[in-house]
Model the fold of this input.
Amino acid sequence: MRYAGFSILFLIFLASAVEVTVFMKNYENSADLRVFSSSGLIFEGKIRSGDVLNLPPDSYRFELSAVNKTFVKELRILSDQIVEFNLGFTNSTEFLEIRIHSVVHKDGYVDEIIIVSNRGDLNFEGDLAIPMPKISGFKLLSSNL
Done:
């Protein structure tokens, strides 16, 4: 049997878009948003809280500019998702938790590690003065490290 012709069926699958809702907490005005994927800038414009972007599943970098700051989130988006930016600020230290860890090396050198955690609902913006412990007369008597 000889075929005089044949047909080829091409199926083009378009990646279905997912809905990305941008939510700006503690902020009611518009903001500038830039969205980057591995291929570069894919969205740039003004948005308001609750606006929805339709994007194909991929890894993205969101840069939101508002209140004279730029907030950055890097996310892998595979399904509908809410991207939340908290634009609220305080200079109150009420919800800050400060922990200081000391690491003593064999040669007597001491590293101080400071961990500051914010347990509040607002971003902290201000100055912190953390008194460091004074160490004097330190001797390493024995070591089993």
